[in-house]
Amino acid sequence: VKGGIETTLEKEVLQYDYTSSYFDIFLLAVFRFKVLILAYAMCRLRHWWAIAFTTAVTSAFLLAKVIISQLFSQGAFGYVLPIISFILAWIETWFLDFKVLPQEAEEESRFLIAQDASERAALLHPGVLSDGQFYSPPESVAGSDEDSEEKQDSEKPVV
């Protein structure tokens, strides 16, 4: 920054000139950030069109800026800023397309499987004991001879 922050900000923002200012590259990054936050966080899109749109706009703007402007005559920073902005836009595109969207789809399918399993499990749990269910004390052995004799006696008609 030559001449202090205030004079540089005044030159870049208030006396904006497309051919020599870096402020529009900053605004391009803000535009890209807001569009992507709106698309993926607020609207919860699961498609790549928003990142493709912002990458195309960013790439076209940076290419036009480099061709038309005088940034290369301003030293090394004139080369570095447009190149880094261009590379970052494409890295974000690659990262979203090959890492984030597939991972979110996998997480969503896991969530749906777990939710489906919990819904089915709720139907399989035994409810409250009904009249038809009974409890045998541990002293009585089910199917023993005593049980069958008592059953036969109780089943005999009373005269």
Question: What are the main properties of this structure?
Answer:
159 residues, mainly alpha, 2 domains, 5 helices, 0% strand, elongated, transmembrane helix, transmembrane, STR3N protein, cholesterol binding
Give an overview in words.
It is a single chain. By secondary structure, the protein is an all-alpha fold. It has two domains: 1-70, no CATH class; 77-122. It has helices at residues 5-14, 23-42, 49-68, 76-124, 145-155. The longest helix has 49 residues, at 76-124. The model has no long low-confidence stretch (mean pLDDT 75). One of its GO terms (biological process) is vesicle tethering to endoplasmic reticulum. Residues 129-159 are annotated as: Disordered. Residues 1-144 form the MENTAL domain. It is a multi-pass membrane protein.
Radius of gyration (Å): 37 Å
What class, by secondary structure content? mainly alpha
Kindly, what is the distance between the CA atoms of the first and last residues, rounded to a whole number of angstroms? 116 Å
Q: In total, how many domains does the architecture comprise?
A: 2
What is the tally of helical segments? 5
The biggest beta sheet reads: none
Overall pLDDT level: 75
Low-confidence stretches: none
Count of strand segments? 0
Helix content: 55-70%
